[in-house]
Design a protein that fits this description.
Order of helices and strands: HH
Radius of gyration: 22 Å
Distance between the termini: 84 Å
Structural class: mainly alpha
Number of helices: 2
Shape: elongated
Number of strands: 0
Length: 76
């Protein structure tokens, strides 16, 4: 192995994994939600943002759908 390599003649190329990189976004989450994931992340030994991503990826893999009912309760 050489002590030094001349990299000045190398041609650059696009990262073939660029399409698989994560996208940085801003989200507003309730404080209790953040604390919940931070607690779970600490127990698991992973960053909480990674844990949230894993949870959302699992939702995607399981094709989970949110059921929201915005109707107000009917008074009798």
């Amino acid at each position: 192995m050489k002590a030094e390599y001349d990299l000045s003649k190398l041609k650059s190329r696009k990262n073939p994994y660029a399409s698989k990189l994560k996208k940085s976004i801003t989200m507003r989450l309730s404080e209790d939600v953040v604390m919940y994931f931070k607690g779970m992340a600490e127990e698991a030994g992973v960053p909480y943002q990674s844990l949230i991503n894993l949870y959302l990826r699992d939702c995607l893999a399981q094709n989970r759908r949110v059921k929201i009912d915005w109707r107000s309760p009917q008074s009798n």
